[in-house]
Amino acid sequence: MSGSVDLTSRVRAALDTVSDPATGKGLLASGRISGLVVREDGRIGFVLETSAGAADEPLRQAAEAAVAAVPGASAVTAVLTAHSDTPPGASQRPSAAPSSIQPSGSPRGVPAPPRRPARHIVAVASAKGGVGKSTVAVNLAVAAARAGLRAGLLDADVFGPSLPTMMGTVGRKPELTPAKKLEPLTAHGVTTMSLGYLVSPDNPVVWRGPMVVSAVTQMISDTAWPEDLDILYIDTPPGTGEVQLTLVQHLPLDGVIIVSTPQEVALADVRRGVGMFRKTAVPVLGVIENMAWYELPDGTRDHVFGEGGAQRTANELSTPFLGALPILSELRKGGDAGAPAAGGDGVASTAFALLNDAVLDAVASAPGKPAPVLLFE
Ligand code: ADP
Q1: CB within 6 Å of ligand 1 — which residues?
Q2: Which of 14-18, 77-81, 294-298 is most confident?
Q3: How much is the pTM?
Q4: Ligand 1 closest atom vs CA 332
Q5: Which domains does the chain have, with CATH numbers?
Q6: What DSSP assignment string belongs to 95-145?
Q7: Mean of the pLDDT values across residues 93-120?
Q8: From the CA of 136, how far away is ligand 1's center (Å)?
């Protein structure tokens, strides 16, 4: 452990040897570095905050090189990202959403995206609402960014988009690029898009199946995703009925993760859901058990909702069990505050780093090949 503490201080010192042209101070001292993760095996990732966009690429390279030269560093990934300095209200144009995003009963033949939005695309699903699906999706994306991946998060939970609250982007609106694409919003090192950015919370929309599919596929194709996203997590609407199945079949997914609590009632739905997903070409990458236990002050575990149910169900269904997540108040608080706990220093950040690794392993060993590029033409 102390080895990694030493490595962390060496990395921090190295970051300050590179000076920020704006302040003349070191990058760390200038507050330009966020999401620094130093692993014991020497893998290091961090985010260089910029408002200059690609013009800061040489600075990113200098920071990466400085850290790579630190004894003990085995692999370094520096991600360039930007805070939106747009003051709230500055871009309140209702036209921020291309008209093709507006709910419409029939798909409007928008051009297919020229490329996959990310190297890997993983949907997070649950049989019912309230089991922590959005919490898991948001924190996995933040954990992926902390691990040095270029991570994206698409909130396709049209029935209750919670990404803006959980990622702290409420009030921000995507700008339109000159090519009339939506500029995704970056938060906590993650590139994000949500229907919540486009549809007013005061003007709820009643979504029917085909609308959901067309809105979500259009939201993917009308967003100016960065060229080089490693992974895009998609928070899907709760339920494993027709809408969800059609949706996942229309997205170019590597696979789907199912989030469940350990109760028998929830697990019965998981069994049904896995069975239904299996009828599609979308691999079920595994099950995550959420709210698995609550740790009492004396360190013992209270299995509030039953013990090991999701793991047993996963085994029964021959689906990988990706991990169990306890009830952690930092997860609830982080979600409410727009500061996901995976980006903090508590237990949740370690848990999600491991869960994200488990998802990536499951993607690597998934039986199906990633879906073809122009799937939703
Ligand atoms: P869903 O997307 O399945 O509807 P959410 O992710 O919105 O569920 O979670 C529902 C509520 O439970 C939120 O308030 C969230 O912060 C909280 N929550 C989810 N998982 C946990 C957890 N492991 N520990 C503590 N609170 C959690």
Answers
A1: 126, 129-135, 162, 238, 290-291, 325, 327-328, 331-332, 335
A2: 14-18
A3: 0.70
A4: 16
A5: 2-83 (3.30.300.130), 120-365 (3.40.50.300)
A6: GGS-GGGS--SS---PPPPSS-SSSEEEEEEESSTTSSHHHHHHHHHHHHH
A7: 44
A8: 8
